[in-house]
Amino acid sequence: MRISNNKETDLRLCKSSSMLNLTLIALILLPISITAQAQQAKARNVIEEVIVTAQKREQSIADVPLSIQALGADKLERERIESLGDLRFVSPSFTFSAATGGGLANSISMRGLGSFSSEGGVQPSVSTVLDGVPLSRSGEFSADLGDIERIEVITGPQGTLFGRNSTAGALNITRKGPSPEFEASIEGSVTDDSERVLKLMLNGPLSDSILGRVNILSKDRDGHIRNLHADHGDAGGDESLAAVAKLAIDFSDAVSMMISADFNDSETGGNPLVTFDTDTLYDPEARYTALGDGDAERGRKIMADPFTINNNSPDFYNFEQWGIVADLTWQLSDNWTLKSLTSARGWEQEFGLDIDSTPASVGNLNSLTANITETENTYGLFAVAVDGTNYSPLGRSGGANSVDYQTQELRLEYGDERMSVVAGGYYQNYHEDGAVAVPVWVRQNPDIPLPPTPFIVSDPYTNDLEQTSWAVFGDVTYDVTDIFQVFAGLRWTDEQATLDHQQRSFVASVYSCENNFCDVDLTVAILNEEKNHVTDGEAADWSGRLGGRWTLSDDTNVYTSYSRGFIGIGVNYTRSSTPENAYLNPSVSDAYEVGIKTMLFDSRMQLHGAIFYQIVEELQTTKRVPGSTQTAPINAGNLYTQGFELNGTWLATQSLEIQFGAAFTDAEFRDFELDCYVGQSAEDGCNTNTNIQDMEGQQPPQAPRFKYTLSGNYERQLLDLPMDVTLNANYVWQDETATDLKRHPKLFQEAYGLLNVSAGLRTHSGKYEISLFGRNVTDEFYALRKGHSDPVTGYFQYTVRGAQAYWGVNGKLRF
């Protein structure tokens, strides 16, 4: 698809996309009138009640005084929510950004608030809770395993019940548990971009008191980014094997336990840096020449295609993760329940990137043969990625992390006709170690004051982080009258951490390279210094909420609330780490919200809306280190955000359900200064004397001012065949947004809309099911994140699979 830089052309494309969207929705609505061809699959006269656990107990979503969107198993399956990032298709308040080096730093934003982080260390602003246990990082959860009962997208601070790291909101994910009936299924899908997925499920009783359920996933997908280099295959692919098992054990009528275990082993093509524009500080022709492997015109063509690279170093991201949870419930009496949640999780990841994103190589150079005129393998580039040095802790360029932690939560719950109480304590013991090295060969540039000969620069480092956290909390909801309810909660959290950071920074002018791997001699180095430190950090603060809920009628209630969230100490274990900046200040959030929940048209339409105002002090995020693809954690001043959210469901007919959502977010920085982006002038807001720009009033990254979602699901029973037909369309549109903290004009993502469709047949018994699906069927290109590393990479973006259209077929057999 053509990518336009002209506003009039963009407007025409927008209108064209809108017309196509309306046409497809019309096709969905068409079967309503063909009554002679079909009859009802099942009578639905009202919208079904949705049960959620956002307040640690089962409640109707209409009775929960929170802005919450519940996505059930049917919606997740028919709209093919295959990863955590796919939630952006169905939730207007949710945005997602992929990380540079692995899933530990995937960034989720809600209401314009997120960590905006591209490397680990900064704690998330959105808590991801899986089967009642908060995960340390959102990247630990793999939605493509399926078998999910429900995902609750809860916006606004949720610190009272979900703990720290939920200043923007929480994702409360519940996987399906065992049931007493025997069930089994096999499901498979293939796509035209060479993905093959197989899922197996088995469920049933193991004894009179034990039920079991197991789900297994195998996925194999070729890379969606074509790599022209002969030594490496296409990038961005995925080969995964995963499993989830659950056991439900009834020890007695009053005591039961749910044991959950999961495992995931994935090898992927990572997130390669796809160059889309040349360097600012150095000869742009050199970038074209290198990208084209000596042919500048070929390099221009490669740069113009966001699905093509020419990388001579491997791009990969591999990980293993596992977890186990024991959820014990003891019904002490009709009113009192004791809950214990014990968990252990582990995560290992490794990643590699071609930092210069070209075939350029130092080959077999050494410090005697490498001079300013040598261009045979380096093509005149200012900087060329090296595959490793004798000081790289992993023996190669790239990074690796290992995480393991244990949690324990103990809760006492009380409930009667007028009051419900939740009180308890929480403890987490967290350990992470990692190593990173990204060596680069740098050519002398007469215009830049550097040492007089080409050299190799690197900052290899290792980390060992120990962190403990404990909390006590309580939350009360009380019905003052039949129509008025008050709620209040308080949580105290205490964190302590110890970081052991070992780093060597060097600039080596004496070296010898073989096949792009270099041995350096640091005895005569231009720079050779160790930056080692062991530093302790601690933080403690409170979270809480206070509010009231009024029942205006049987179908309508309104609520108002104040809530406070807390993010603990962020850790700087990047190459910029020192004893003075090893820990970021905690972030504290204060939010005010007014909401309404109502049923209209005899319970055929449901509307949930909220307006909010929120202040975040000492926002934790990361900024990109100039001249590097790496980032450094910082406190980004204060963030003010306000707006509204609306989610609705309309049962248009007994066969057609339409769901819609919209979010308007006005977010801006306050009291925040940041170094200027490369090439920023005084007219663009840079103080050229200090190289600092004032971010006051600027919108944060991944915070579109307006976003909406619209989906329609149509189900009918065919009259002449023993089958049900299902048609589904989902459209999401979001406003322009920055993808980088410094708001470089080239690093904005223009407004875009995505359309997904599916059509399926299912036997009345549900035993056989087949569907055809299309993703991004209008072939709309977009990038979830862009960056600038001048003069190492130039301007780059992450090209995700969904940035182009693809189609597939899915089949399912139930036993």
Mean pLDDT: 88
Helix content: under 10%
What would you report as the Rg, rounded to the nearest angstrom?
Answer: 27 Å
What portion of residues belong to β-strands? over 45%
Counting DSSP H or I runs of 4 or more residues, the number of helices is 5
For the biggest sheet, the summary is: 22 strands, antiparallel, barrel
Low-confidence stretches: 1-43
Structural class: mainly beta
What is the straight-line distance between the termini? 43 Å
Tell me about this structure.
The protein is mainly beta and 815 residues long. 6% of the residues lie in helices and 51% in strands. It has a 22-stranded antiparallel beta barrel. The two termini are 43 Å apart. Mean pLDDT is 88; it is low at 1-43.
Keywords:
globular; 22-stranded antiparallel barrel; five-stranded mixed beta sheet; disordered N terminus; 815 residues; 5 helices; mainly beta
Brief overview, please?
Helices cover 6% and strands 51% of the residues. By secondary structure, the protein is mainly β.
How is the topology of this model organized?
Blueprint: H1 7-29, E1 38-39, E2 51-52, E3 59-60, E4 67-72, H2 73-78, E5 94-97, E6 107-110, E7 113-114, E8 126-130, E9 133-134, E10 148-155, H3 159-162, E11 169-175, E12 183-191, E13 195-205, E14 210-221, E15 226-227, E16 238-250, E17 255-268, E18 274-277, H4 284-291, H5 296-304, E19 308-309, E20 316-331, E21 336-352, E22 383-385, E23 398-415, E24 419-437, E25 440-442, E26 455-458, E27 461-479, E28 484-508, E29 511-514, E30 517-520, E31 527-530, E32 533-551, E33 556-567, E34 587-600, E35 605-617, E36 620-624, E37 631-635, E38 638-651, E39 656-670, E40 673-675, E41 686-687, E42 692-694, E43 706-718, E44 723-734, E45 737-738, E46 748-749, E47 752-763, E48 768-775, E49 786-789, E50 794-797, E51 806-814
Parallel strand pairs: 8-11, 15-19
Antiparallel strand pairs: 1-43, 2-3, 4-10, 5-6, 6-7, 8-9, 10-11, 12-13, 12-51, 13-14, 14-16, 16-17, 17-20, 18-50, 20-21, 21-23, 22-25, 23-24, 24-27, 25-26, 26-28, 27-28, 28-31, 28-32, 29-30, 32-33, 33-34, 34-35, 35-38, 36-37, 38-39, 39-43, 40-42, 41-42, 43-44, 44-47, 45-46, 47-48, 48-51, 49-50
Helix pairs in contact: 4-5
